[in-house]
Amino acid sequence: MGIALSPSEIYRVLVKARFFRNTARRDFIDEVIRFSERVIAEGKGLIVDAPPGIGKTAIPVTYAVAKAMGYTEILGINHVLPLRTLVYDTKKRFREGMEAIGLKHTEPMAAIQYGLYHESPYFSACYVISTVDTFMLNLLKVPTAAYGKIVFTEFYGHYEIPRASILTSLNVFDEFHLMLESERGMKTLITTLKCLSEVKTPFITMTSTLPRIYINQITKLVRNVEVKTYNPRPGDGFYDVEGFKKFIAGDGGLVKVKDITDIIELLERQEGSGGRSCLIVNTVRRAIDVYEELGSKALLLHSRYTVRDRKMKIESLELKDRVVSTQVIEAGVDTSFDVMVTELAPISSVIQRLGRLARRPSDKEGVWCVFFDKESLKGNGIYDEVMVKETLEVLNEVADKRINWHLPTIIGGKYLGYKDILEYVWSRYVEKVSKDKVTLTIDPSIKEILMNPLVDPKQVLKYLIDIRSFVREDVMGPIYVDEPPNDYVSYINTIQDHLIPTNLDYAFRYVCKALERGYDVAKIVRSGRDGVGTDSFRCDEKIDDLLKDIITGRLLAFLIPKELYDGGEGGVGLKPIRR
Question: From CA 251, how far away is CA 261, in angstroms rounded?
Fold first, then answer.
């Protein structure tokens, strides 16, 4: 027996019922959902290339509701996101949408799955919202819910159960461009798409700023994939709204600064017109410095908070008129500002950040400005220096022109869209770097893990020790605040309030500084299968040894005293240790 409504029909019903808050029906999203119904039925992949703010998240959400109402082409939906912040925000918006249509009990339907937080341990819920790291571990035969058992016993973790769930589901990779920022992430994700395509598992990748050079390469490597690109046309609702918005370049659009005082003065000049403002910087240290100079007259948002505190900040974001943030806000967070001042970054990041400017349909204009200093031009130790410099050169050429930061191109070419600028920067970048740097390749080892049924989780862990991470350049090395409980189950129950997700290299440097300044620090280690204890920390320990202990589950986190953490809505999070 067939279902009463198709996914595309359900999308229209959800819009009418205000599931997506006050977002109107988008012609392009409606078109993509109808198009994807055929793609899914044929077991193909789909690349959706569309602007920030157009409502791409409605695609996996619509399929989740459709599945709950009897849609039979897939057994579930996995919504894969690049950042933990987005996982909570997506679940919150889904819950609000369900409540808007009169359904309040959504927990069994929508589940968060990441790291040590398991609402659907084997990806069996109808709608699973996961980080890309956790998704890849489960797909690559290391289910995170059984990680300890795999390491400490002869148990193999029922690893084919989450794989079966994933391979019979629709897998949606949201903000896909952010997953490709590292060479490791590129190889793993492209290999994954190719393997999903070969076994006819449908997938959708959604992106706003993936350059054409990568889209073309993906279609050639993966093959069984189609592309749906947003093309503005008269009468299109999104274009009609966004095309009339005015984006004003404050202080000429590009400003060189010397210090924190310059940055704050620049922000305050742009705020003269009133409304909500956001300052985005590239490092946590700079965000904290600005925040402290402002005298806490803002909401501070970055990655070095406990899970609970960061969730609280995201939930209170809409209530704040001034926000100081790192790049954690640049993707997926559905909020709007009247003023956006951002530090220089690669063009894709600049576009994503400005996607939060004048985002509401009722907004008529927004003020933007990009600032830079010596550290910015070097990429702040985060970004590709060549890409940052090419971004600066192009912005310098176009800052005095009329730019629409929400539309990829403008009908008639009267002024510039963001995709015009993106592709221009990338064309210059390609000329400056070696061909290998912009060529996507398949990872044979990842393909072997995915396709060979004889590869088991213990073999995968050995490979993971060699490469550090499937997706990122560095493995996670979390920091735990205050004394942990001495059994593993209790420890897991405390991580939301005490655990700060950081990478290993940063965590090691931070804890070493703390030790040198006289703070009591330690390593939290697993004692057998069920126990938790502490061990001494030394600054002369080898990173490779710590890496091995983290991947094999023996090292759980680095322990710091509670005086090094400033929590709550007004807190700065993990405190910088000044030299």
Answer: 16
pLDDT of residue 157: 76
CATH entry, 242-432, from 3.30.56.10, 3.40.50.300, 3.30.70.60, 3.40.50.2300: 3.40.50.300
DSSP 170-239: EEEETTHHHHTSSHHHHHHHHHHHHHHHHTT--EEEEESS--HHHHHHHHHHH-SEEEEE----TT-HHH
Strand order in the sheet with 479-481: 499-500, 479-481, 555-560, 522-527, 531-535
**d(Cα 208, Cα 356) in Å, to the nearest integer?**
13
Q: Is the dihedral of CA 269, 280, 497, 536 positive or negative?
A: negative
pLDDT tier, 405 (very low <50, low <70, confident <90, very high otherwise): very high
Q: How far apart are CA 180 and CA 214, in angstroms?
A: 10
Average pLDDT, the chain: 90
Query: Could you identify the residue written with the tokens 């100081």?
Result: 324
Q: Is 5 helix (H, G, I), strand (E, B) or coil?
A: coil
Rounded to two decimals, the pTM is: 0.91
Residue 127 has pLDDT above 90, yes or no: yes
Q: Phi, psi at residue 489, to the nearest 5°?
A: -60, -45
- Highest CATH level, class, for 7-229: alpha beta
**What is the tally of helices (H) and strands (E) in the chain?**
23, 23
Residue 105 clears pLDDT 80, i.e. is over it: no
502-519 pLDDT, tens per residue?
999 999 999 999 999 999
Q: Identify residue 209 by its one-letter amino acid code.
A: T
Please tell me the distance from the alpha carbon of residue 71 to that of residue 3, in angstroms, as a whole number.
Answer: 6
Q: Where are the domains of the chain?
A: 7-229, 242-432, 474-574
172 to each of 294, 411, 498, 563, how far by Cα in Å? 40, 30, 31, 41
Closest CA to 458 of 240, 159, 39, 247: 159
Nearest to 169 by CA among 127, 110, 111: 127
Average pLDDT over every residue of 211-229: 94
